[in-house]
Design a protein that fits this description.
Helix content: 55-70%
Radius of gyration: 28 Å
Number of strands: 2
Structural class: mainly alpha
Strand order of the largest sheet: 1-2
Distance between the termini: 87 Å
Strand content: under 5%
Number of helices: 5
Largest sheet: 2 strands, antiparallel
Order of helices and strands: HHHHEEH
Shape: rod-shaped
């Protein structure tokens, strides 16, 4: 009789802990197990822990950080991928480093999306022309086989 009552209590605390953990974006199974094994203590622990950021948002953020970190390694002078000579210059494939915050932003950007630093129209045009010249030089080097 007492064993059955203790088992029912463990199941109830396990279910309650799982529900609370699930509402806080935590593992319902793991917290349910803790509630089942430790009873009231597992339930109180499930209540006490804070909410976790949604997994989909954090995974999106991680993937965008990975993309930006890989593109940060490429400077304006380097092409993202090899282009055939027939292809035109595409400024969207190139990045520049912000002078104020040192983050990489699109080559055509007039305002840094990280710190708000504004580039003059003349600066942006000069940077685009410089990148075009580099691409042109790279294409001519490829044609010569260098």
């Amino acid at each position: 009789m007492i064993t059955g009552l203790l088992f029912v209590q463990a199941v109830v605390f396990g279910i309650l802990s799982a529900i609370i953990a699930s509402n806080k974006n935590r593992s319902a199974g793991g917290w349910g197990d803790l509630g089942f094994l430790f009873g009231l203590f597992g339930f109180v622990a499930a209540i006490a822990v804070g909410e976790v950021e949604d997994d989909t948002r954090s995974s999106r953020r991680r993937s965008s950080q990975q993309k930006s970190s890989s593109s940060e390694r490429k400077q304006t002078s380097l092409r993202k991928e090899k282009q055939s000579p027939a292809q035109d210059f595409d400024p969207d494939e190139y990045r520049k480093k912000c002078l104020m915050c040192a983050e990489y932003i699109k080559l055509e950007a007039r305002v840094c999306c990280h710190c708000g630093h504004e580039f003059s129209e003349k600066e942006v045009e000069q940077q685009i022309e410089k990148a075009k010249e580099i691409v042109k030089d790279d294409k001519s080097n490829e044609e010569r086989g260098e």
